[in-house]
Amino acid sequence: MKTADEKEFANWLLLGDGKLSNTDGLHIDTIEIPQDFITKGSLITKIFGYTITMKQVQDNPDRAILCPKNEDTFKINDEILGLMEGEEKEYLSIDSIVSDDPQEQLNFPTEFLNSMTPSGMPVHRLKIKVSATIILLRNLNTKKGLCNGTRFIVTDLKPNLIYAEVLTGPAQSQIIFLPKINFLPNDSELPFKLKQRQFLIRVSFAMTINKSQGQTLQKVGIYLPYPVFAHGQL
């Protein structure tokens, strides 16, 4: 994250100078965030305003709320979608396991597979609206600049296609058709090989701190209901 124009914040990130205050008796390794950095009202309103329209998103594509965990982004994105005008559409994934053993397939019912969201995978129940911002979870076409982390604004929703305008990268302002795709997660901790058919996207008004790496963002809110995992993540 570049902070060239935010000298006070950039200096605050230099945690090794020993000048951080700790007036509440916190653990020595715990960082106390200055009150000037904490919003008194709604973080959503502070970043996106009271209304969210397609024109506002197009005019301000470099805004986001960053969270430590995926579960926080899901909650905030659902809340923002609820504030937006327009009809909400829902796309369900088709989940299965890759196995030649019928018995193994019976061991993992569809409801269980639907409940899983491994790292880097889209959600089973994708809720979305026209004007929502979304982020690509896999490289789709690197030659055209459609890479993991590319952000879009949704312009139209079809039964099997999402029309979206590219917000970032070399393909900026182009209209792209996003299809559902079959793919496998990279999570090796699963005791089986999960196969999912879904759009390779997530709503990205809020995204994880890790996912924001490489993004150019001018107005950012950081949602910290609990401490981050490491100094580097903060």
Automatic annotation (TrEMBL):
Entry's Gene Ontology molecular function annotations: helicase activity
Keyword ATP-binding listed: yes
Domain of life according to the entry: Eukaryota
Domain DNA helicase Pif1-like 2B stretches: 111-157
One term under GO cellular component: replication fork
Species the sequence originates in: Lasius niger
Record-linked PANTHER family: DNA HELICASE-RELATED (PTHR23274), OS03G0423850 PROTEIN (PTHR23274:SF51)
Protein name: Atp-dependent dna helicase pif1-like protein
SUPFAM superfamilies reported in the protein's UniProt record: P-loop containing nucleoside triphosphate hydrolases
GO biological process: DNA replication
Keywords from the named record: ATP-binding, Helicase, Hydrolase, Nucleotide-binding
InterPro entries membership: P-loop_NTPase (IPR027417), Pif1-like_2B_dom (IPR049163)
Keyword Hydrolase listed: yes
